[in-house]
Amino acid sequence: MIAGTRRRAVVRVVLAALVVIGLALAPPADARLQPTGGDSLPRLEMGNFLPAIREQLQQAYAAAEARPADPEAAGALGMALDAYEQYDAAALCYRRAQQLDSQSFRWRFYLGWVQAAQGRHEDAALTLAAALRMHPGYVPAQLRLAASLLAIGKWQESGEVYRAVSAAHPENADAQYGAGRVSAARGDVTAAAAAYLRAVELFPDYGAAHYALALVYRTLGDDERYRQQFRLYEQNRTSVPPLDDPLRGAVARLNMGPVAHIRRGADLERAGRIDEAIQEQQEALRVDARAVQAHINLIALHGRLGQYESAVEHYRAALDIDRNQADLHYNYGVLLLKQRRPQEAEAAFRAALEINPYYADAHVNLGVLAEHQGRLNDAVRHFEDAVANRPNDRAAHFHLGRLRANQAEYDEAITHFLKTLTPEDESTPRYLYALAATYARAGNSAEALRYARTAREQAAARGQAELLASIERDFPALAQR
Fold first, then answer.
1. Which of 28, 122, 280, 281 is deepest in the core (most CB within 10 A)?
2. Is the pTM of this model over 0.85?
3. Residues 347 and 365 reside in one and the same domain
């Protein structure tokens, strides 16, 4: 019931903003995007496209030419062009599709989106406003509209849309980030900082929000927080929150270029579908044999399956293309660890850090190697560097917690272990167990039993029998309950 009320509220606010926008902006005057004849298709230069993409575009063009009165054919050509960032030509096709089917939300949304991508924000605001009158609740259109309004100085209207989206979808980090940008444009750095902080709480790897926060802290003269946020930006330059946008997703799926295959492969890997992930990365290489990121990803994927020879082949191929890639050396280092070659792995991790000194995962692995070699001071330094560069790095906090506990520095150890507890995953029961054991060593039996109980429950729920047995052995009071 509450969610429904929020949705109705955001619709009312967005519709009210659309009235203001309609009064404030003149209609678009770009005649290039207003075809009048049935034969108005963009002229395409195909020579710069890879062969597979050229064939795809030629087929879409031929279909639109053969069916000049079909909005689906014109729109499909627009989507294919849009997928490869051919925005001028895509806009022409979308406007044609919109003229042929004036009741379609889809073609208006797509047209507004590409107008924004072209930097034509006044036109985009009008087009998206018209689309939202048809479908007021489509959040991606609302966010795109708010961004265009901000770009043309309509701060009040932009802020109203961002606030309405946040009210209906409090989990939306993009809306918080946008609200922060509005406050920053108005010179209210305090409100901007609060909104940006909320954005990174909702999505900790939000690169643009970390960068914006860094600028705010620099303005406020807080050098320490500026450096911390800038490091986080460096770690997450291109990371953005996922957005549930079926329409833009349909465009993205049309992209047959290597980058699209690489991204789909990464998504499949996160879903645990390793064989399919390998196929996508290989498809990227079929499209473009010099797609170095595909080789880098295949080092890790083949390594996970124990296919070491194939992984090494991709490592060598990537070296030939561009050896100045930190991920290349890091993935090879992980592969060498799997093969029990720690000295060579250490050299690979150091090579990664020479390229990217902020590489937290490389610091963590170098810390582990240093600890195994008895170089505890070096281990601590690497773990601390990892935390400095990525404050939410659970593995680094865990290792620092263990080392501090072994040195009887229990308060500091507990502080680190507490930072490992979220988000919950397969590692959480182990982290809870370490925290409980440290509380016990510190003489705090109540907290020790509390966290041990939670660790036991989670280990049992996840079927971690060996860990469960260790917990019950070390905390016999739990086994008797």
1. 281
2. no
3. no
